[in-house]
Amino acid sequence: MENVFDYEDIQLIPAKCVVNSRSQCDTTVTLGTHSFKLPVVPANMQTIIDEKLAIYLAENGYFYVMHRFEPEKRVAFIKDMQSRGHIASISVGVKEEEYTFVEQLAQENLVPDYITIDIAHGHSNAVIKMIEHIKSHIPSTFVIAGNVGTPEAVRELENAGADATKVGIGPGKVCITKIKTGFGTGGWQLAALRWCAKAASKPIIADGGIRTHGDIAKSIRFGATMVMIGSLFAGHEESPGETMEIEGKLCKEYFGSASEFQKGEKKNVEGKKMYVEHKGSLQDTLIEMEQDLQSSISYAGGTKLDAIRNVDYVVVKNSIFNGDKVY
Ligand SMILES: NC(=O)C1=CN([C@@H]2O[C@H](COP(=O)(O)OP(=O)(O)OC[C@H]3O[C@@H](n4cnc5c(N)ncnc54)[C@H](OP(=O)(O)O)[C@@H]3O)[C@@H](O)[C@H]2O)C=CC1
Ligand SMILES: Nc1nc2c(ncn2[C@@H]2O[C@H](COP(=O)(O)O)[C@@H](O)[C@H]2O)c(=O)[nH]1
After folding, report:
1. What is the spatial distance between Cα 254 and Cα 256, in angstroms, rounded to a whole number?
2. How far is the centre of ligand 1, averaged over its atoms, from the C-alpha of 147 (Å)?
3. pTM for the structure as a whole
4. What does the domain layout of the chain look like in residue ranges?
5. Ligand 2 pocket, residue 234 CB under 6 Å
6. Is 324 assigned to a binding site?
7. Does 10-315 carry CATH code 3.20.20.70?
8. What is the ipTM of this complex?
9. Which of the residues 59, 66, 153, 318 has an alpha carbon 20 to 30 A from that of 185?
10. CA of 256 to the centre of ligand 2 (A)
């Protein structure tokens, strides 16, 4: 790989504006058979999403992926979401009991709209086998498989039947994979996304490393259909993480899915915990994201997200913020 870069090394180049107001720009995206208000999905982590938030997101036209860390609740969750007329979007792992769970869904004729196979090293026979298992038992479910970081992996998972692949190994805010293993796309996630997107024939979800709303537009420019975000969604009023006061400031916890806090033990730990300053309401952040993305579309010279895919860019290695703080 040559010419690697990350989000803060890139600036997109404006094209002539074709709208009179940013409100004329449309941020909707289609994934599978459903359309969503934003090309953004909160990470399927226990301090980022819970049942209440899933209902809020689905009710308001946003995509969501429920986490897999309370497996016993998933059947009731799917039934509840579908009885409300909402999409059901869940996660699975690859252990033996997950095969039985998929079979149970098929027997009960419970068909989630989306299933995300949520594994650290998704380029593996275990994930390929799980894709095939889901597709043979519940073929109409849209399968998102990951996480991967190479074109070979994207092709193999697509060939096994995945409807979308999730790209990002190690760029997450609470990730320590890059430190503990020396592997991953941390530090060059945007370049890895471009590399993978060139090989993909189906949608890609860019996962991890988003630090500003502008990074969403950059992900789209480099081939993402959707962007999965943890840290930017952490710390809200509605976020499931525990709230506490630290040095007089209200904070909420955000921990990795492979951290000891999630696992309950110190085995194969590849995630950490941090405290995020309280950010107010998630609804306000979603609105701000939409407005910022509408603005991105206007700078791209179009009216829809697709306009961003074709803009020129420059690499300004590590210098965009010129030593300034982002906020
Ligand atoms: N996006 C990212 O960069 C990363 C994300 N995560 C998140 O952490 C959570 C836990 O992930 P994960 O550990 O995969 O899930 P699980 O703990 O459910 O492990 C799934 C299975 O895969 C095996 N496994 C895990 N890692 C590897 C590996 N590197 N090589 C071979 N087998 C492996 C496990 O066995 P065993 O434990 O015995 O090896 C287990 O049998 C997920 O939510 C995941 O998304 C974790 C790390 C990186
Ligand atoms: N290496 C690890 N990665 C993790 C862990 N838990 C979650 N994740 C990944 O991070 C993103 C969110 O990234 P952010 O930069 O937006 O905060 C999430 O979707 C997972 O892919 C972990 O314990 N270790």
Report:
1. 7
2. 10
3. 0.96
4. 10-315
5. no
6. no
7. yes
8. 0.96
9. 66
10. 6
